[in-house]
Amino acid sequence: MRIIIDASVLCLRRYTKGGQQRYTREVLRHLDTVGAEDSYVLWFNFINPANLPLYEQACRELSETKLRHRTVLCRIPPQVLEPLRVPVELFTGAADLFHAPTAAAYYTWRARHVVTIHDLAYFDHPECFDFPDIERSKRHVKWLANRAAMVLTVSEHARETIIERLGVSPDRVRVTYHGVSRIFYEEGSGVPFEALQTRFGIRKPYILFVSTIQPNKNVVRLLEAFDLLRRAELKGWQLVLAGQRGWLTESIFAKADALVVGDDLVVTGFVEEEALPTLYRHAGVFVLPSLVEGFGIPVIEAMACGAPVVVSKSGALPEIAGDAGELVDPYSVEDIARGILAVATDPARRDRLIARGKARAEQFRWEQTARETVAAYRDAAGMR
Asked: What's the whole-model pTM score?
């Protein structure tokens, strides 16, 4: 088959190292091991010249794989292509399938569509998202899902939500779980911890949060829970927030300033992948208390590195963590504090979660994600 994949997200700076960018990059990196008989056209569509270095970096990375592919860079704004219904094949040539791994909308002449919808968090928590017209976004994703031959998603929770909210036939919605990059399994990988101490002012013991900082990640309640703990049972601990700023962060950082936690709180900003294993490996507790997640890649990364994890009992997080995570109520500051304290102060519980977490992380591999994606391509090509 000849397959077009929209790789534009690899070149958009606001997505750098986010879940959708990580998913697209890792699937492309591993397609050569499972879809060698197919040929691919990687479609890049952006207009900002500042994104060109990321495009060149993506091309270099993909040239190191054995994937049979060529790249097509289109500098016509997508805001022009979509309303005019300009088919992608006009630039790429004919193809059997078009895969949109970030639910972007493009038109095709004959290529059937496969779309990945990572979650529908903005349906349940619109207050957490900075969309100019959230109702239009809802109509758009419903239209996109119902015209696709196959909808891929990243958890059973997300699959059930897509079927219920978008009215897609269950036989056209398939789960392809995320994976863990090899660097997180390798003992001794990452930069020396001393380098992070110098760079960020981190000290041990610390509680670690890794994700884009935005309202749906529930950072305000995490800050409040930490403030309770640092005044009593966990004096001397740090809270490390690692991740780039997302949208609507003013209230989050206002809360951080109001708590006046001083050097008990470290906000690192974006942390490159090479440093993340070190952060996970030395953490006393990893916590992701999100209101909703389609998957939650940092959870399995932390598990692979041997960090005990505390996650909210909402969205896909209980499904992904399985019996290897301490579950907490994301709407209760006291319960978030309870979960962190239980893991931080009970060695037996901590050791049990670490052992279960390492075994759990082994079940998530990007090679498997790529294999299941290619299988979905085959089935979508044969659908009426």
From this structure: 0.92
